[in-house]
Amino acid sequence: MRITRVASVLALAAGVILGWGILFGPFFYGCTSTAVAPDQTPAPQVCRGSSLIEVQGSDLFPAPLLWILMWSLAPLLAVIGVWLSRRPRIRLIALALLMELTGSSVSAAVSSSPLSSSRCCSSH
């Protein structure tokens, strides 16, 4: 029983840390270049890392934000399910697992969508 309690707290900590990292970490890279006239040499591209909030701007809500929140806080249900009583509450733990699995499939769909890559690189 002690192993499940420690594992649930570690999963919660990992979920919150990863969610924070996805939102604010420089995991999205993009390059920009300046527009030039047809007969001029193009300026070099400038590439840098950006956070999800910088890349998505005002389009952050609702899809990625809700997914990240659900994925990061799903282990909280497991913590509650394990720590509330002497007997683990299987329904809460199963719901947390379902939320984690749903978040993983949504993540794959969001990262492969053309919208997620088109916002990366822009010309100014």
Q: What's the mean pLDDT score?
A: 76
Run of helices and strands:
HEEHHHHE
- Strand order within the widest beta sheet: 2-1-3
| Strand coverage percent | 5-15%
How many independent structural domains? Answer: 1
Proportion in helices: 55-70%
Question: What would your notes on this structure say?
Answer:
This protein is mostly helical. Helix content is 61%, strand content 10%. The chain has five helices and three strands. The chain has a three-stranded mixed sheet with strand order 2-1-3. Helix 3 (63-83) packs antiparallel against helix 4 (90-111). The radius of gyration is 20 Å and the shape is rod-shaped.
Please sum up the structure shown.
This protein has 124 residues and is mostly helical. Helices cover 61% and strands 10% of the residues.
Question: How would the blueprint of this fold be written?
Answer:
Elements: H1 2-24, E1 28-33, E2 46-50, H2 52-56, H3 63-83, H4 90-111, H5 114-118, E3 122-123
Parallel strand pairs: 1-3
Antiparallel strand pairs: 1-2
Summary keywords:
124 residues; mainly alpha; three-stranded mixed sheet; 5 helices; 3 strands; disordered C terminus
